[in-house]
């Protein structure tokens, strides 16, 4: 068989986190492996598969939620000891379930990431990294941004301890003891690290990373510098990467790369050449492992989902070769399994009915106490660079009934292809209640994951709220809040073009480093909440909608902000002034406006404006052209450009539908740029806005620039 195509569900546990499922080493060459998984109820479950049924090995009592699960043991021996991170404690269990370790660390926060190598234990909280050897503190490091994962190069290959931290600011930090050896810039916020080929490759120095925006890459971590090997983008706009493993699932002697994404997709990459990996399969995941679980001789990919389902994608063929007797045997096996599942389902349905009746009776009694059922929601609110929109992903452990979305700032809801929910809008009064959006998504049965897309307007800031109601009784709801920041469409970047014409805003006053940092956190996304170490800090940003840039440098008593877009400087000036006023801090504000930057920004906007105006014109012509086609039958007499519109009508309508109010947003940005340019000169030009809009309808770049310069 060419690869994994058939799937089977082994069992369900509680809600699981990233990297909390592993396969124990097989006892023999072709023996099946045991599965061990830790859930957010604090339960560790270990089971094997016999005759297609899950057979428990051990199960621990509930406790604090398990954030990580790793296998360990002495170097160069089978890694069959089970270690779990729960709160700030690390526990160790044998493969039979006997606890042999309970290590209370000196971390004040819960453990977020863990790696084990022999007697060495590497732990990370949000910003803190600790290295322990035989449970004794060895090294410590404070990161500049949140740590998402940790890994150590194999000591038996590189002959030294080299930890690598995956940090939210798009950087891999390579450590030596308690010191930073060097930083590796990667194209997105890295969420997961794995050793290439499971062992770091021939040199032991190769690390595969996955990012929250769905990119993959391989980097060689040498003792002096990083060597990038390959990088794979996210052309299909799939989810962020949660887990990575290496396993020879195709049986060709070369380990494939197994990748699990947060939108439920499992991918298999193989190396057809010695260079870049090629995607061979994908399947509709928190942890992923390759091994032999269900049946001797048939390898499979084992995946655990957020809601706790453990699923195997196996290489075992559905239809065996050999003859009618074997086919009959297989059919009987399948019938027996189906019958068993039906009986189990009927039993569960009866149990649900009984419990529901019991609840109804108890709720109507005079001594009834209301009980609100609890449920977990896994949410993610991230900015997409490709289309300058925010993705809001809501994943619930049970089916979602509906999600109510409310915003106190103007935002656009965009279409999502994968979204099957029915959306309805309610009218809302923006004046007294600051209520600009009220939309309800009614989900189809068994929808456990909902993805929404919104686009904000820079300068308008507030809160987006999602009221999540699952299909459970009694009805209950959770509210989740997401901040829309003043410069919400800006994204962190490693560097900017210093040759662009820049406008400068300078602030001076009696404020601390922590105070000005909190103002920047309030204004811009992707800034760590913790005040940076040192006396000063510089952050670079890029506007995902326009491509303009921002440099932010500040220290105690002084802040300097540079941008090639006057509107960015204007928004920052207003917001920072307001935040300082709240704290009764007097600011001395000065600015240096570069007139050339206006022309530069208009040249960046104009191609987008031209494209959107042309798209709108084509869409408005479609109905008339289709009517003409119906009456005439033949449209050969039309000009080629009109025939082209008819041929591409469906794609044009789809694109226009995906980007509502895109043209209006561009008009708004140009209008703001016009007003902001003259605001810094102390001139109010709002009366000239109607004339500006007339020029915009004409879509003449030179005329637009001349209007800005002559006004």
UniProtKB/TrEMBL annotation:
<dbReference type="Pfam" id="PF23361">
    <property type="entry name" value="BBS7_pf"/>
</dbReference>
<dbReference type="InterPro" id="IPR056332">
    <property type="entry name" value="Beta-prop_BBS7"/>
</dbReference>
<keyword id="KW-0175">Coiled coil</keyword>
<dbReference type="GO" id="GO:0008104">
    <property type="term" value="P:intracellular protein localization"/>
</dbReference>
<protein>
    <submittedName>
        <fullName>BBS7 protein</fullName>
    </submittedName>
</protein>
<dbReference type="GO" id="GO:0034464">
    <property type="term" value="C:BBSome"/>
</dbReference>
<dbReference type="InterPro" id="IPR036322">
    <property type="entry name" value="WD40_repeat_dom_sf"/>
</dbReference>
<dbReference type="Pfam" id="PF23743">
    <property type="entry name" value="Beta-prop_BBS7"/>
</dbReference>
<dbReference type="GO" id="GO:0043005">
    <property type="term" value="C:neuron projection"/>
</dbReference>
<dbReference type="InterPro" id="IPR056333">
    <property type="entry name" value="BBS7_pf_dom"/>
</dbReference>
<dbReference type="InterPro" id="IPR016575">
    <property type="entry name" value="Bardet-Biedl_syndrome_7_prot"/>
</dbReference>
<feature type="domain" description="BBS7 beta-propeller">
    <location>
        <begin position="21"/>
        <end position="315"/>
    </location>
</feature>
<feature type="domain" description="BBS7 platform">
    <location>
        <begin position="490"/>
        <end position="592"/>
    </location>
</feature>
<feature type="domain" description="BBS7 GAE">
    <location>
        <begin position="373"/>
        <end position="482"/>
    </location>
</feature>
<dbReference type="InterPro" id="IPR056335">
    <property type="entry name" value="BBS7_hairpin"/>
</dbReference>
<feature type="coiled-coil region">
    <location>
        <begin position="331"/>
        <end position="358"/>
    </location>
</feature>
<dbReference type="GO" id="GO:1905515">
    <property type="term" value="P:non-motile cilium assembly"/>
</dbReference>
<dbReference type="Pfam" id="PF23360">
    <property type="entry name" value="BBS7_GAE"/>
</dbReference>
<dbReference type="GO" id="GO:0036064">
    <property type="term" value="C:ciliary basal body"/>
</dbReference>
<dbReference type="Pfam" id="PF23349">
    <property type="entry name" value="BBS7_hp"/>
</dbReference>
<dbReference type="GO" id="GO:0005930">
    <property type="term" value="C:axoneme"/>
</dbReference>
<dbReference type="GO" id="GO:0016020">
    <property type="term" value="C:membrane"/>
</dbReference>
<feature type="domain" description="BBS7 helical hairpin">
    <location>
        <begin position="595"/>
        <end position="708"/>
    </location>
</feature>
<dbReference type="InterPro" id="IPR056334">
    <property type="entry name" value="BBS7_GAE_dom"/>
</dbReference>
